[in-house]
Amino acid sequence: MRKNSIKNTRINAEVQKELSNIIRNEIKDPRIHPMTTVVMVDVTPDLKFCKAYISVLGDDEALKSTIQGLKSAKPYIRRMLASSVNLRNTPELTFIPDQSIEYGVHMTNLINEVTKDLKKDDQAEVEGDEII
Fold first, then answer.
1. Long-range CB pairs of 104-111, under 8 A, 24+ apart, other chains included
2. b/e map of 18-48 (b: 16 or more CB within 10 Å)?
3. Class of the CATH domain delimited by 6-98
4. According to the model, what pLDDT value does residue 92 have?
């Protein structure tokens, strides 16, 4: 199975959906932040390993404690995943913190600041032309 095949894409989507359900509904660890999102899942073609990219709406401390909580609950999550998703092998999970949402918000704020400054400059030029 190739990495970008339709089968692998479907497996990634199904594992992502089930991981989200397990994290949201099954795990009762207080270290795991309630606003935790599974952004993306990458299962290897041989179904042995899985990288789960996790995003937390909160500060860096919340992200670190959530990743620690998920790492400690990894055997339980894998067992629940095996019971809910019928795969030949249940992949070994690796949780990776994802900063893409925060980076996107930061870049949007920077773009908004630049466009705001450009609008002010344009208005100043228009007002300057009217005086002459």
1. none
2. bbbebbeeebeeebbbeebbbbebbbbeebe
3. alpha beta
4. 95
